[in-house]
Amino acid sequence: MLSIRRVVKSFDSRPGGSVPVLAGIDLDIASGEFFCLLGGSGCGKTTLLNILAGFEAPSAGEISLDGAAINGAGPDRVVFFQNADAALFPWLTAEENVAFGLRIKGMGEAACAPIAEQWLRLVGLWEHRGKFPQQLSGGMKQRIQIARGLAIDPAMLLMDEPFAALDAITRRLMHAELLRIWSATSKTVVFVTHDVAEAVILADRIGVMTRGPSARIKAVIPVELPRPRDPGHPRFAEAYGRIEALLMPEAQA
Amino acid sequence: MFVLSFGTFIALWKFASTYLVSPYIIPPPDDVLRTAIPMVTTAEIPRHILASLSRVAVGFSLGSGLGIVTGILMGRIKWVHDLLDPVIEFFRFLSPTAMIPIAVIWFGIGETSKYFLIFWGSFFVVLINAIHGVMATPPIRLRASECLGATRLQIFVHIVLPSAIPSIVTGMRVAIALSFMSIIPAEILAADSGLGFLLQQSSLLLQTNRVFVVLAVFGILGGASDWTFQQAASRLLGRYLEVHGRG
């Protein structure tokens, strides 16, 4: 279980001042859960994800994963960035990117190969294994990034709007792919998004954030719809409406 | 296009030298060619080419090598950067030509002073580019490798260095051009061999033909060096150069 207790984060600004980004976040995310953090631009959801990743330390509060405090980044919590173009290593082929995390663990080329192949096939890019990232489309790059993160078998996936830059159809396909991988591997997913529909399609529970600065979790809403979820279904529309009603005053305030 | 470009240039040259100005100012191209042939076949030119090129090669290698190492350290370690940066910002505005008088006092007119001047001309530009290359590594790339389990040393070797290569190679290309620009004044003022020396000697004797030959040879040499460097770079480092991740 990921436990977030009274996490506060402020950034130093001009002389003497500081900007409070997060003003006391409390959350428990169960192992194997698909949790969406939903909020508007600038609400601090990416900051919270960066703290969970260990890229940044909280100004106050505690985070622990299965009882152990989080102290810096580690391969048990892989981050998937929105900008796959920047996150991939452009001098490595698709296959070498996917094998990167295994190679730096000291695993030999022969031992990596079948694992890299398994994940490249799963994301449907085995035929493109020899290509460099700049030879692939945006959606393909994102799938390579996902394969690279999954290849090291992390317990937790931290996803920062990974599909935001993709076209609507590709995004729908990626949602289905992600849900398939998630249900097959029972990993914990923390998925940051500003898109209500995306959150309702994916999440077990949705943490709706207030607007920043000094953001909090406004409410945690469970989505109890069977998967795959159909956006045209009346119960989907009902869940969507309920969450949008929570979010709307944050945008207007 | 290459042929057309040079063809037009040579035609204009021929026209100007025949009808417009004295051959002492601009000798016609065929005269220059006739002068060039014995200079090449008697090994007069090759001897001077060798002298200049070996100076460029030694000075450029020293300057680039030290520039890369220092630049990577400065880009990666803050106190090294803060310690060296002010001094470098002062010295890098002294051109190699400005350093010729002191180089002659320190090293005489032998090879060492030329090595020093070419070193001086190539070191700073490679250094600045190496610092920039290291510092400009996209933060997302660093974080991505970090959460895939890379240690600090692995991040440096597998991410920071490869990310800096395009910038370093660009710096070295500029340094080659600067080396060629620095060797001529150095040899004009203080040498008894090399293309700059030959240029100066021909000019003093008003042998405009020979001046033109040396200038042409020098232009070809510079272009050929840059071409060779680019070929070698793309052969050895292609996968680091053809790609530019943004972010």
List the topology elements.
The complex is a heterodimer of chains A (253) and B (247).
Chain A: E1 2-12, E2 18-29, E3 34-38, H1 45-53, E4 60-65, E5 68-69, E6 77-80, H2 84-87, H3 94-103, H4 109-122, H5 138-151, E7 156-160, H6 168-185, E8 188-193, H7 196-202, E9 205-209, E10 217-222, H8 234-252
Helix pairs in contact in A: 3-4, 3-5, 4-5, 7-8
Chain B: H1 2-20, H2 29-41, H3 44-76, H4 78-91, H5 96-107, H6 111-135, H7 139-147, H8 152-189, H9 195-204, H10 208-241
Helix pairs in contact in B: 2-10, 3-4, 3-6, 3-8, 3-9, 5-6, 6-8, 7-8, 8-9, 8-10, 9-10
Structure summarized in a few sentences:
Chain A has helices at 45-53, 84-87, 94-103, 109-122, 138-151, 168-185, 196-202, 234-252, and strands at 2-12, 18-29, 34-38, 60-65, 68-69, 77-80, 156-160, 188-193, 205-209, 217-222.
What does this structure look like?
- The complex is a heterodimer of chains A (253) and B (247).
- Chain A has 253 residues and is of the alpha/beta class.
- Chain A has helices spanning 45-53, 84-87, 94-103, 109-122, 138-151, 168-185, 196-202, 234-252, and strands spanning 2-12, 18-29, 34-38, 60-65, 68-69, 77-80, 156-160, 188-193, 205-209, 217-222.
- Chain B has 247 residues and is an all-alpha fold.
- Chain B has one domain: Orthogonal Bundle (MetI-like fold).
- Chain B is 84% helix and 0% strand.
- Chain B is elongated.
- The mean pLDDT of chain B is 92.
- Chains A and B meet through strand 6, helix 2 and helix 5 of A and helix 7 and helix 8 of B.
